Backbone:
């Protein structure tokens, strides 16, 4: 008996030791400051991290702890958000300004401290203040723990592909101008691949991303849409790709010749260099879902491209160009978004919770606001109105004196209300463009209204796009949680028929869902992470005018499920 006890204890110690050894503490310093770069014939000062654009990639293993010191040496206040990281019991490190912290003022610093828990794949970090994330962003690459493997053959190389947008202007000025005029922001001048616009733009013949491959080898491309306001199509001439993960959640292998990716989303694909030796363009161009609506949404119609160069290819060879999809190719986008499924039984797979505690039906879209003071509103019909966003007829306003998380933790009143409606206050034909003639529907009150839920409760949300102002696809991002995407469709959600379409076996898991133009998506998650969690459109031009809301998840019953105290260096408001 004693021998059995000894063997059991030894085995337990080995397991604990193995877990401890496989998890590391990684410490980094981010210096946020001005950087002068040349793009599209112009020398321009941008805000960047550690003198690089895009910023540094963070390479971690599942289970690792990250300690990141952010020193703000820029002229702007800033926060950093670790997009998609669950931040389990570390809400103070999530990063959205005035939700979990006040901004880091110029000359000040703050340390983010969190662990990567039960997530593998690709995420990214970015600024969460104004439009600064256009240039302040970088990859988070999460490998399996030591002695663990991918649920697919190990690739020969791994390659981050960050898709972005470029303005020939100061991006803070771009946002400020839009807010001052009560309109949407000016469209970008270019798209980029790993910071480079590519040779289709002026003065950019030698500013194109190039990646060299060996014939027969397989590469893992970690694709990130870091663009501010654009969904993107991504293609590589004559090559198929196999999707194996999205938003750091493994999927069943999905073979495709095109990736459709919304702002805030990531897609991991395997690319096998199986074509004749040569050069092949990769491209990214806008999926502009709102361009065909009655109102019409402005978009950048250009294409960025990089190049895949096979070892042994002649330098004189003209790369092959893929057939670029039409900007309004909604059928292709919808097919990609809806056909992905989770890898059941794979690493960190989570079954769908079947019992729902809190059901919500939430309309999302744009609207108008009575012209605020110091805003001209000259370019927006009717005159005297400014562009606004809303969810369930509430246009979200960020607190100004204290972050939501501070107000929740210290029980400070007057910062927010918990009366966000679980259903639309007014029922209407959500996706019919004729609703724009009903002026009262266009105006939503502005307030800091949130939803409070109990710890470990299951939340289901029907996200219903509307045709107010203009129908378009909205990328909705939830902080603090991954969710199951149970179903997506067009038109008005019909509970009598559309609930029958729910995938309760292997739905994809995401942190950002692309809600179809003039359509809907249903998501479900377990609120097992106490704190305040932002939910917002990942178009910054929409988020900045109120297309957002927030959840407060109450503390759990034990010290391990209770929100810890704030760190001593939390920035002051």
Residues:
């Amino acid at each position: 008996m004693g021998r059995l006890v000894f063997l059991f204890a030894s085995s337990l110690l080995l397991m604990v030791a193995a877990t401890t050894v496989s998890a590391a503490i990684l410490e980094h310093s981010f210096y946020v400051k001005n950087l002068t770069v040349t793009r599209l014939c112009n020398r321009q000062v941008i805000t960047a991290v550690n003198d690089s654009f895009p910023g540094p990639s963070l390479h971690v293993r599942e289970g690792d702890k990250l300690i990141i010191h952010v020193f703000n040496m820029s002229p702007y206040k800033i926060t950093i958000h670790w997009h998609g990281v669950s931040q389990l019991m570390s809400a103070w490190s999530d990063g959205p300004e005035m939700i979990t912290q006040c901004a880091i003022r110029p000359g000040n610093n703050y340390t983010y401290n969190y662990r990567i828990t039960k997530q593998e794949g690709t995420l990214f970090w970015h600024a969460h203040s104004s439009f600064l994330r256009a240039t302040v962003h970088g990859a988070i690459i999460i490998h399996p723990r030591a002695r663990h493997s991918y649920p697919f053959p190990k690739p020969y190389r791994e390659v981050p592909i960050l898709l972005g947008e470029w303005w020939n202007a100061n991006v803070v000025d771009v946002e400020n101008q839009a807010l001052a005029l009560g309109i949407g922001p000016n469209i970008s001048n270019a798209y980029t691949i790993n910071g480079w616009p590519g040779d289709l733009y002026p003065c950019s013949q030698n500013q194109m991303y190039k990646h060299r491959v060996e014939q027969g080898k397989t590469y893992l491309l970690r694709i990130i849409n870091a663009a501010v306001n654009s969904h993107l199509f991504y293609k590589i001439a004559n090559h198929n790709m196999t999707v194996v993960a999205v938003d750091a959640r493994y999927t069943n292998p999905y073979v495709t010749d095109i990736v459709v990716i919304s702002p805030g989303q990531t897609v991991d694909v395997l690319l096998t260099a199986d074509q004749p030796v040569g050069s092949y363009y990769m491209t990214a161009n806008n999926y502009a879902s709102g361009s065909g609506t009655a109102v019409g949404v402005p978009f950048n119609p250009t294409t960025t491209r990089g190049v895949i160069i096979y070892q042994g290819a002649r330098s004189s060879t003209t790369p092959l160009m893929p057939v670029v999809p039409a900007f309004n190719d909604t059928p292709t986008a919808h097919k990609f978004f809806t056909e992905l499924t989770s890898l059941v039984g794979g690493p960190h797979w989570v079954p769908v919770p079947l019992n729902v505690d809190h059901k919500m039906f939430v309309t999302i879209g744009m609207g108008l606001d009575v012209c605020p003071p110091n805003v001209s509103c000259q370019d927006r019909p009717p005159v005297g109105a400014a562009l606004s966003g809303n969810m369930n007829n509430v246009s979200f306003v960020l607190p100004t004196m204290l972050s939501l998380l501070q107000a929740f933790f210290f029980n400070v009143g007057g910062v927010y209300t918990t009366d966000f409606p679980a259903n639309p206050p007014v029922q209407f034909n959500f996706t019919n463009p004729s609703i724009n003639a009903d002026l009262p529907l266009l105006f939503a009150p502005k307030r800091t209204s949130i939803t409070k839920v109990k710890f470990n409760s299951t939340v289901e949300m029907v996200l219903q796009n509307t045709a107010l102002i203009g129908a378009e696809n909205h990328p909705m991002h939830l902080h603090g949680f991954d969710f199951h995407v149970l179903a997506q469709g067009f038109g008005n959600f019909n509970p009598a028929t559309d609930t029958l379409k729910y995938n309760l076996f292997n739905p994809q898991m995401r942190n950002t869902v692309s809600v179809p133009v003039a359509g809907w998506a249903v998501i479900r998650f377990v609120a097992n992470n106490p704190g305040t969690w932002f939910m917002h459109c990942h178009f910054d031009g929409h988020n900045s005018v109120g297309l957002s809301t927030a959840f407060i998840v109450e503390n759990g019953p034990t010290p391990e499920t209770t929100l810890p105290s704030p760190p001593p260096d939390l920035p002051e408001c």
